[in-house]
């Protein structure tokens, strides 16, 4: 029987933690060795046979890449890190999620644009460099009796969000790199008969290869409903409307997998707020029976890695 080289994939992350361990275990089913690396430690090296330096890969490239995170940095640093992913793809290395998908989801303005273009309900949004234009959007919303959420363009996990009400002003432009991403506030409050707000909630739907696989309901005493900001996670049935919206959003952004955040307003209208291209799933895993990491790896292997690898899965 011919000997086949052992398969090796890279999990790009700066914080392997729980997610990394789950992914490594899932790859073991296919006798694939997965190792953690940081994109910070990779670089272009045109003196090497591959044109790249990927730690522990001497004169060769990985068989596949799973992107779990890209560290923040200067514009130049992030550009090179994304360039490494583009170079790997150009060299024939399958990447999950694809680098273009990551770029579209990291940039909230592009995500919003693609959702709106696909006819998917998403809140009215503006992303601009002009403080004057942003102020006009803000004041027009106040005249309509609306509130506005100010978000960092590259933010995640609910950090640095601001809720602006009538009379509020925009924050100092330097704090957000002079980029104003403003979105109509969608209230997802649970209100009692007296009109008092009891809590807030939204849904996270996990989509893999265009199909919704699991969902959770997030509850919080704060209007920011991210688990990282203290929200509690509860199991949620895959509601047909949420499935349709989440799958349509995933298709519009063209991602291998995504965490799609959906809210309903007081009238029951559902909106897609964000499509996360590098979503965490620890909270979701705690409230559902499906092995999310194994689902992800099964999809990655079946669609992007060789038939030999699939045929030798450990059942």
From TrEMBL:
One Pfam family in the UniProt entry: RimK
Recorded GO MF terms: ATP binding; ligase activity, forming carbon-nitrogen bonds; metal ion binding
GO cellular component, one term: cytoplasm
Keyword tags: ATP-binding, Ligase, Manganese, Metal-binding, Nucleotide-binding
UniProt keyword ATP-binding present: yes
Keyword check for Nucleus: no
Residue span, ATP-grasp domain: 112-301
Entries under NCBIfam families matching the protein: rimK_fam
PANTHER family: BETA-CITRYLGLUTAMATE SYNTHASE B-RELATED, RIBOSOMAL PROTEIN S6 MODIFICATION PROTEIN
Protein name, per record: Alpha-L-glutamate ligase, RimK family
Organism placement in taxonomy: Bacteria, Pseudomonadati, Pseudomonadota, Gammaproteobacteria, Thiotrichales
